[in-house]
Design goal:
Elements lengths: L10 E12 L5 H21 L10 E4 L2 E8 L5 E4 L3 E5 L11 E5 L1 H7 L1 H12 L12 E10 L11 E3 L8 E6 L2 E9 L2 E7 H5 L4 H13 L9 E8 H6 L5 H6 L1 H11 E3 L7 H4 L11 H9 L3 H4 L17 H17 L6 H27 L6 H6 L3 H16 L6 H20 L7
Antiparallel strand pairs: 1-6, 1-7, 2-3, 3-4, 4-5, 5-6, 7-12, 8-13, 9-10, 10-11, 11-12
Helix pairs in contact: 2-3, 2-5, 8-10, 15-16
């Protein structure tokens, strides 16, 4: 490889991801029950509107912070997403040997608030009322990294020298055409990734892309030139070997972890080696690639760790379904109409908007009235607030369900009673099926 001057190579180092457990306290069961109740309440609300929903349509509020439900994972945790983090909760009676709360910080949160501020915000605000007084937060994963103005497209397997015996079988790369995008060495619980950060950001959200471009600019990196990320991923199994147990331990020893990674996996300069030497123990005598020697000796996260946002200045951070979120699904529906030869007009959308608002306000006002009177709405009350189209769709689903159930089954009797109520409401309105 051509030798280049790297003395003044722009770079910035820090922590790209942090996962940890939060030890729950005696009030956790009530906290978890509140989560389950909110999820069920949201589901019932969607059903009342006759709305087909997904898990991520459900938004709950914990200590005035909104988080979006993403379903139950294979690990048995109920997972929720926030723009700045991901958090999981589980039933305390299930898998009692595992902590009940998992937290995963993402890049948008880390680079917006600062890692210490984000951890404090989650632990003292979001999780308030659920934690143990011991304040024990075991770290489960940390990614220590360096963004560097350098193009690693020349990398090849022969340049990798690892002290881990199993790494030789776990070296891989992902390329697009002739351009390297990701080079990875090893696998969980310890691995190295070297990848084109700007290429990765092409598929990121506008918010993340703008945030990272600003971060690079502030730290002297040019987004018009190549920026690669050198990142070591450590999991708890390895961290414990080095007496790193808690989040605080991991943060205070991030520099040591990065330097350890650079020692465990090295990139050597093979330009002076013969083909025979490349396949012999003499390969280990080759010098480090100059850029790797630079990376191994320049990690410094002091400035990164000083990025903080005082909690009293952090306004309520909530997840709300925004107009921008709605743009893509609406665009897909318009495309579907166009494919079927239908061209919706401005008047069509205006009329649809007004009808949707009217239906929502009518339904919302009715629910408020029911709560004020402390009365659960009857099925007749519910059906009155269905739209004509929604009522016919409901009748069709009930009819299909009845065909699959034995007549002596209690569920059949319940469904049949419900079906009769729906038919009665359809008859009362004088709805003609052929109009829909």
């Amino acid at each position: 490889m051509k030798n280049i001057n790297i003395k003044n190579t722009p770079f910035v180092s820090g922590i790209d991801a942090l996962y940890y457990f939060a030890q729950s306290g005696r009030l956790y069961d009530d906290f978890f029950e509140n989560i389950l109740e909110q999820i069920e309440d949201k589901k019932q609300e969607f059903r009342a509107f006759n709305y087909a929903y997904n898990d991520n349509d459900i938004i709950i509020t914990l200590n005035n912070i909104d988080i979006k439900y993403s379903g139950m994972g294979r690990d048995g945790f109920l997972w929720f997403n926030h723009e700045f983090f991901r958090v999981g909760f589980k039933d305390s009676e299930k898998s009692p040997n595992i902590h009940n709360i998992r937290v995963q910080l993402n890049a948008v949160g880390i680079y917006t608030l600062g890692i210490k501020s984000l951890v404090a915000y989650i632990n003292t605000q979001l999780l308030k009322g659920s934690l143990s007084s011991a304040n024990y937060f075991p770290v489960t994963r940390i990614d220590v990294n360096m963004f560097i103005q350098h193009n690693f497209n020349y990398l090849c397997k022969e340049m990798i020298l690892s002290k881990k015996k199993n790494h030789s079988a776990n070296i891989g790369e992902r390329s697009t055409g002739y351009e390297l995008e990701t080079y990875y060495v090893g696998k969980k619980p310890f691995l190295l990734r070297i990848y084109n950060k700007l290429k990765e950001l092409e598929g990121a959200s506008d918010i993340k892309r703008e945030l990272m471009h600003n971060y690079f600019g502030i730290n002297g990196l040019d987004v018009q030139k190549d920026i690669f990320n050198v990142e070591f991923e450590y999991h708890r199994e390895v961290l414990k070997q080095y007496d790193i147990d808690t989040v605080e331990d991991a943060l205070s020893r991030a520099q040591s972890l990065f330097e350890l990674g650079c020692d465990l996996v090295k990139i050597i300069d093979i330009s002076s080696l013969t083909a025979e030497q490349l396949n012999s123990p003499n390969k280990r005598r080759a010098p480090l690639l100059p850029i790797w020697e630079f990376i191994a000796t320049h990690y410094d996260n002091k400035d990164f760790m000083q990025i903080t946002t005082p909690l009293e200045k952090i306004e309520k951070i909530s997840y709300r379904y925004s107009l921008e979120d709605a743009r893509k699904p609406i665009k897909r529906q318009i495309t579907r109409l166009l494919l079927h030869g239908n061209s919706p007009t401005i008047f069509y959308f205006y009329e649809l908007l007004q009808k949707s608002k009217d239906d929502f306000e009518q339904r919302h006002d009715y629910k408020v009235l029911q709560r004020e009177n402390n009365r659960e709405p009857s099925i007749t009350d519910e059906l009155i607030n269905y739209s004509n189209e929604g009522l016919l769709n409901y009748e069709a689903r009930l009819y299909n369900d009845l065909q699959t159930l034995p007549m002596d089954n209690q569920t059949y009797k319940d469904f049949n009673e419900l079906h009769q109520a729906v038919e009665k409401e359809i008859s009362r309105r004088g709805i003609d099926d052929d109009l829909f």
